[in-house]
Amino acid sequence: LGWKFYDGDDYHPPENRKKMAEGIPLNDEDRIPWLCALHDILRREDSSRQDTVLACSALKKMYRHILASGASAIESNQPEQQEGNTALKILFVHLDGPNDIIAARLSKRRGHFMPPQLLKSQFDTLEPPSAPENFITVSLEKSLPEIVLEIEHAIFQG
C-alpha cells in the first residue's frame, strides 16, 4: 500500500511489557494510556494526510473508540464527535480464527514479551466489532495473500 506501518506492541510502556512477560494479563488501567498514545500517533499521521496501518489488539469496543477519538472516548461512548474533535476515520480489521490456529502461530513467535499462555485472557476480553463500527472480519484460516486482498478490497472499495 505504501502506507506508514506501526506495530502497537512497540509502544507498550516497560511496565506493561514486564507484566505480560510474567504472564499477567493487562487490564483497562494498563491499556488505556497505551491506546491514547496510539491515538496520538494516528491523529498526527492523519493531520499530515499520511495513510497508516496500525497493528494492535483493540479487543474491546471502548478500546476502538479510544483509538478513533482519544482520551475523551473514555467518558463518552460516542465516537463520532467529542470536544470539538471529529473521530478519525478508521477501518478496523478483525482477524478472526480458531483458538488453536492462533495459539500455534503464537508458539512460533520468538523474542516477544507476550507469552502464548496469555491468549485465553485475550479471548476472554474480546468484544468482536459490531455495527455501527467501521470494520471487516477476515478469517485467519485463509492464506496470507487472500487476507491481504480482502483487506485491500475493503479499503479501496469500501
TrEMBL record:
<comment type="similarity">
    <text>Belongs to the gluconokinase GntK/GntV family.</text>
</comment>
<dbReference type="InterPro" id="IPR027417">
    <property type="entry name" value="P-loop_NTPase"/>
</dbReference>
<dbReference type="GO" id="GO:0005524">
    <property type="term" value="F:ATP binding"/>
</dbReference>
<keyword id="KW-0808">Transferase</keyword>
<keyword id="KW-0547">Nucleotide-binding</keyword>
<dbReference type="InterPro" id="IPR006001">
    <property type="entry name" value="Therm_gnt_kin"/>
</dbReference>
<protein>
    <recommendedName>
        <fullName>Gluconokinase</fullName>
        <ecNumber>2.7.1.12</ecNumber>
    </recommendedName>
</protein>
<dbReference type="GO" id="GO:0005975">
    <property type="term" value="P:carbohydrate metabolic process"/>
</dbReference>
<keyword id="KW-0067">ATP-binding</keyword>
<keyword id="KW-0418">Kinase</keyword>
<dbReference type="GO" id="GO:0005737">
    <property type="term" value="C:cytoplasm"/>
</dbReference>
<dbReference type="GO" id="GO:0046316">
    <property type="term" value="F:gluconokinase activity"/>
</dbReference>
<comment type="pathway">
    <text>Carbohydrate acid metabolism; D-gluconate degradation.</text>
</comment>
